[in-house]
Amino acid sequence: MRVLIAGATGFVGRNLVPAMLGSGEDVRCLVRTPGAPAARGLAAAGAELVAGDVASRRDLAAPFEAVEVAYFLVHMMGGADGQGSYERTEVASARRFARAARRAGVERVVYLGGLGALPSSPHLRSRHATGRALADEGPPLVYMRAGMAIGAGSESYVLARSAVERLPVVPDNAWLHTESQPIGIRDLVAYLRLAADPEIGRPGEVELGGPDVLSHLDMLDAIARSLGR
To answer: In this predicted structure, what is the pLDDT of residue 109?
Structure first.
């Protein structure tokens, strides 16, 4: 099976690509800069690289050639052209991706969004809006809503550890008391792989979280204890 992964150089993508290759899949990665270190690492693992940008208005037909399943792992944190919100940019990118996938005859799209329903969270609003755009415009969608992914190289873990190491006191705010269900990256990758299997990963929403419900303060405390602080 040939799969296309957009967002392959991110934390989740860097873990998903070798797992898919290891199971015998033909993996193609849509990357903005094939010569970048992260992209070269994917190529060294055996993935095919194709240059492209979902935020660009350029045609995306070529990356989808002969693709059966497409993964949308793109999570933007700012407007691609410096104008407008990242939410609008990401939704527009999702629509272009979904339409190209539909025109190419892709059988399904797998999207990794966020777990939770906080109306005040721009991050979650963007994830949900992106999921709707993919479902409305493209092939059948497996929308996987996951808690924070934890593992070596996780951006969330790196930021949390940096806060623990650098700040003697963390100012109290509502974010510290927000609860989530973090999930290990190995478990998350296993679920993402299963989503490509039509016998298992049926279109619709799937909620993924670990067994523990933790606030961000709980996670900072756990990191501090592990560091002996």
So the answer is: 98
Which neighbouring-strand residues pair with 152?
Answer: none
Q: Which two tokens stand for residue 177?
A: 């008391």
Distance CA 11, CA 9 (A): 7
- CATH fold of 2-147+185-208: Rossmann fold (3.40.50)
Enumerate the domain spans of the chain.
Answer: 2-147+185-208
Q: What is the pLDDT of residue 79?
A: 45
CA distance 95 to 77: 17
* Burial of 224 from C-beta contacts in 10 A (0-12 / 13-18 / 19+): middle
pLDDT on residue 119: 56
Closest CA to 63 of 48, 45, 74, 41: 48
Q: Is residue 77 over pLDDT 70?
A: no
